[in-house]
Design brief:
This protein is of the alpha/beta class and 303 residues long. The protein folds into two domains: 2-93 and 279-294, ornithine cyclodeaminase, domain 1, CATH 3.30.1780; 100-276, Rossmann fold (3-Layer(aba) Sandwich), CATH 3.40.50.720. The protein contains ten helices and 14 strands. The strands form two sheets. The chain has an eight-stranded parallel beta sheet. Strands 1, 2, 3, 4, 5 and 6 form a six-stranded antiparallel beta sheet that branches. Helix 4 (124-136) links the parallel strand 7 (116-120) and strand 8. The model has no long low-confidence stretch (mean pLDDT 96).
C-alpha cells in the first residue's frame, strides 16, 4: 500500500503539471444481458507507462452463473515502445488505487495528530481505506459502520488482527463520526447518510463511494462548510451536489504546491474522489514491479 500511495501521489501531481493525461471515460451498456462496461485510461509520462482498465457490471451473474457481478482487467504498457507489460485482475487494483487516494489525501489534508478514524462501508474498499490511513497516520482507535451488522463485525475482527489496531464495530454512522479525526466513506449509497452536524471542526473526510452523479454520501450542506478537494474538476462537476465555487483545488494542485492544503487545525477538509484512469495505471505499475521483483505471475514473451 505504501508503494501504491507514493505512485498514485506522483500520478496526481503529474495531472497538475501536465505529466499525466487522462482521456474521457468510455461507458457502454449491454442491455441484452443486463450489463454495463466502462473504460478508464491514463498516461504517466513521468513513469513512461500507459494503461487502461476495462471493467464491467453484470447484475445477474451471481444468480445465473455463480460469477461476481463486477469484473475487470488492467493492462499496463511501456510508453517508450508500446510493449504490453502486464495484464492483471482489476478488482484488487481498483481496491488498492482507491484506498491509496485516502492515504494521499490524509497526507496533505488531515491534521498530523489525527489518531481516531471512522470507516463507513465494510467491504473491500473500506479495508484498503484503512490500510492507507494506517500508513500515513498513527491511529489508535478505529470505528467501522456498515448497514449489514455481520459485515462490520467481521471487518472489525479481521482488521484488528491484520493491523494490530483497536478496530470496533458501531451501530450507526453518527457513533462512528463522534470524535473522529479522519473519516473514509466507501459505500454505494444514492442518498446522503452523513449529516453535517455530525462533522466536527478539524475533521478530514475522504469519500470514494460517490463515484458517479447519482450517488452521494455526505449532506450537501457539508460541502459549504469545508475546504473541498477533488481529483479532477470537470469530472467532479458531473455530481449534482458539487458546484464550481465549492471546489478549492484538485488534489494534484495541492501536491504540486500550486494551492494550499490544510491551513489550520479547525478547518474541515473533504476529498471528494471519483476515480481516474491514472490511478489504475499507477497501481497497476506497482503490482507489475512487485510481480517482477518477486517472480510471481505467468510470464510470456510477446515480441
Amino acid at each position: 500500500m505504501k508503494d501504491t500511495i507514493d505512485t498514485v501521489q506522483e500520478a496526481f501531481k503529474g495531472l497538475a503539471t501536465g505529466e499525466s493525461i487522462i482521456p474521457a471515460l468510455v461507458l457502454m451498456d449491454a442491455p441484452k444481458h443486463n450489463g454495463a462496461w466502462g473504460i478508464k485510461a491514463g498516461v504517466l509520462n513521468n513513469q513512461d507507462v500507459i494503461g487502461l482498465k476495462l471493467s464491467c457490471s453484470y447484475f445477474d451473474n451471481p444468480k445465473k452463473y455463480g460469477l461476481p457481478s463486477i469484473m475487470g482487467v488492467v493492462v499496463v504498457s511501456d510508453l517508450k515502445n508500446g510493449v504490453p507489460l502486464a495484464l492483471m485482475d482489476g478488482l484488487q487494483i481498483t481496491a488498492f488505487r482507491t484506498g491509496a487516494v485516502a492515504g494521499v489525501a490524509a497526507r496533505y489534508l488531515a491534521r498530523k495528530d489525527s489518531e481516531v478514524a471512522a470507516i463507513l462501508g465494510a467491504g473491500a474498499q473500506g479495508r484498503t481505506q484503512l490500510l492507507a490511513l494506517n500508513e500515513i497516520l498513527k491511529l489508535r482507535d478505529v470505528r467501522v459502520y456498515d448497514i449489514v451488522p455481520e459485515l462490520r463485525d467481521k471487518y472489525a475482527k479481521e482488521m484488528s488482527a491484520k493491523l494490530g489496531l483497536n478496530v470496533h464495530s458501531v451501530a450507526n454512522a453518527a457513533e462512528a463520526l463522534k470524535g473522529a479525526d479522519v473519516v473514509s466513506t466507501a459505500t454505494p449509497s444514492r442518498e446522503p447518510y452523513v449529516r453535517t452536524e455530525w462533522i466536527q471542526p478539524g475533521t478530514h473526510i475522504t469519500t470514494v463511494g460517490s463515484d458517479e452523479g447519482s450517488k452521494q454520501e455526505l449532506d450537501s450542506s457539508a460541502y459549504s462548510r469545508a475546504k473541498v478537494v477533488v481529483d479532477k474538476r470537470d469530472v467532479a462537476l458531473n455530481k449534482k451536489y458539487l458546484k464550481p465555487e465549492l471546489i478549492h483545488a484538485e488534489l494534484g494542485e495541492i501536491i504540486a504546491g500550486m494551492k494550499p492544503g490544510r491551513t489550520n487545525a479547525d478547518e474541515i477538509t473533504i476529498m471528494d474522489s471519483t476515480g481516474l484512469g491514472i490511478q489504475d495505471v499507477a497501481a497497476g505499475l506497482v503490482a507489475y514491479r512487485l510481480a517482477k521483483e518477486k517472480g510471481v505471475g505467468t510470464w510470456k514473451e510477446l515480441f
